[in-house]
């Protein structure tokens, strides 16, 4: 075996190693990697500890869109219902956090709010207070 032949083999092996290594690196951060067991545990704990904020937030949102009568009747019932859903889901997620239980993933088991604006759930409970560093949690009125 001469040196030119050995050099060609070495270059080919190095080239295939580089291509194989780049393909392997591509699958190390798949799109579903954002949802893992630690996020599931955190989401469950947040739903248990802060799910009661739904009791305050839902009547307030209902009052903004539909008025006082709806807020004190429908909004209050909706708030308590969402609180109990969050509490039950939180307990479920805390006890099953090591396992991918929702369609083989760690994503939330409830319906997302994005396509179902009035019927879905945010991943984490709503925040209470005047300001937030999250842009999606507070609606600002224009007209000042």
Automatic annotation (TrEMBL):
Keywords: Signal. Residues 1-25 form the signal peptide. NCBIfam families: exo_TIGR04073. This is Exosortase system-associated protein, TIGR04073 family. It comes from Chthoniobacter flavus Ellin428.
